[in-house]
Specification:
single chain, eight-stranded parallel barrel, four-stranded antiparallel sheet, 11 helices, 14 strands, 36% helix, 17% strand, elongated, binds phosphoenolpyruvate, binds manganese (II) ion
Length: 348
């Protein structure tokens, strides 16, 4: 349930509402806003009685029951967009943010070349896995802490922020020491122990959609992170598994506007894992911009033919630079549409 207070409600009036809610056995989870305060309430109990009682209080403007199983990530809870600031960029606002870099951190030379190349082309965030979820236990599992240190070095040299995957709850602390954004991979979308730990990690989280995860399940997983204390969650469509074999995964492009209708969280597209083929990445990236994604997560390698993982879907630096130049006019249109969205009605 969400309680909207009247404009300029006082601290005492808010406290009275809190007491009333607690009297019915519910818990106030969050209080947001300054001029107009919105109170998020969770729990189990006689919801109708509680709503009627709170609605009767003079300081309360409106009480809304949230029917979706996810609450804090829903549009009903926050009608606007959540903007997440990372190292001078803002994801979910008026800027289309590109995150790029290799699938895995492989060596100092590789990550430094990748970082310099993607920064020059206009990316703001460097990706690179130090902990890798691999289908085979015999494949390269990542450089772990050594890899995190190389990412830090690349950040220092280029000013790029870092996004890197965290695979287990025991690694949250060490990854948070080096990462600006914690990536949860598709295979971990429903690792609830990890999601709960990320609620307390103090860093934004990029949550990838599971290979067979529905949109509702993705939102429920995001709800875990937010309900455990971290409001900064970015969702990522990276393709789902279907009967189609021509592409590595099937990109559910409609999931992006569908998510934007349901949630205030930013939604980005990973065109690399969604296709598995570098030749398809530029076209899908254009589609991501056109459909209103908040950004992209793209695999780029200085020498894709030598990549230890995901070489076939990685762009080289020249191809990435070309793609970024070709995306420019689309991003201009994207920016205009974001601007008109936030302009007051009379000015349109
Ligand atoms: C990755 O980003 O390299 C990765 C492992 O992606 P996903 O979890 O989407 O498969
Ligand atoms: Mn990869």
């Amino acid at each position: 349930m969400i309680i909207s207070m009247r404009l300029h409600a006082t601290r005492e009036e808010i406290d009275q509402v809190r007491k009333q809610v607690e009297h019915f056995g519910y818990k106030v989870h969050s209080i947001e806003g300054e001029e107009r305060v919105v109170i998020g309430v969770v729990g189990v109990g006689d919801v109708t009685a509680c709503m009627e009682s709170v609605e009767a209080m003079p300081q309360v403007e409106k009480v809304v029951r949230i029917s979706a199983p996810y609450k804090f990530v829903s549009k009903e809870f926050r009608p606007g967009r959540t903007r997440i600031r990372v190292n001078g960029s803002e994801i979910g606002g008026g800027e289309f943010v590109v995150m790029a870099g290799p699938c895995s951190v492989e060596s100092e030379q590789q990550i430094m070349r990748a970082a310099e190349g993607v920064a020059r082309a206009g990316a703001k965030i460097l990706r690179g896995g130090a902990y890798k979820p691999r289908t085979s236990p015999y494949d390269f599992q990542g450089m772990e802490v050594e890899g995190l240190k190389l990412l830090q070095k690349a950040k220092k040299a280029t000013g790029l922020a870092i996004i890197t995957e965290v695979m287990g709850d025991r690694d949250v602390e060490v990854v948070a020491e080096y990462a600006d954004i914690m990536q949860v991979g598709a295979r971990n979308m429903q690792n609830f122990v990890l999601l709960k730990a990320l609620g307390k990690c103090g860093r934004p989280v990029l949550l990838k959609r599971g290979m067979s995860g529905t949109i509702k399940e993705l939102l429920m997983s995001a709800e875990y992170i937010v309900a455990h204390g971290n409001p900064d969650v970015i969702l990522c469509e990276r393709g789902i598994r279907t009967f189609e074999t021509e592409t590595r995964n099937t990109c559910d492009i409609a999931a992006i506007p569908a998510l934007h209708e349901l949630t205030h969280l930013p939604v980005i597209l990973d065109p690399s894992h969604a296709t598995g083929k570098r030749s398809l990445v530029p076209a899908l990236s254009r589609a991501g911009v056109a459909i209103g994604a908040d950004g992209l997560l793209v695999e780029v390698h200085p020498a894709p033919e030598k990549a230890i993982s995901d070489g076939a879907q990685s762009l080289d630096l020249g191809q990435f630079d070309k793609m970024m130049r070709e995306l420019k006019p689309y991003i201009e249109l994207w920016r205009d549409s974001r601007k008109s969205e936030s302009a007051p009605l009379a000015a349109r």
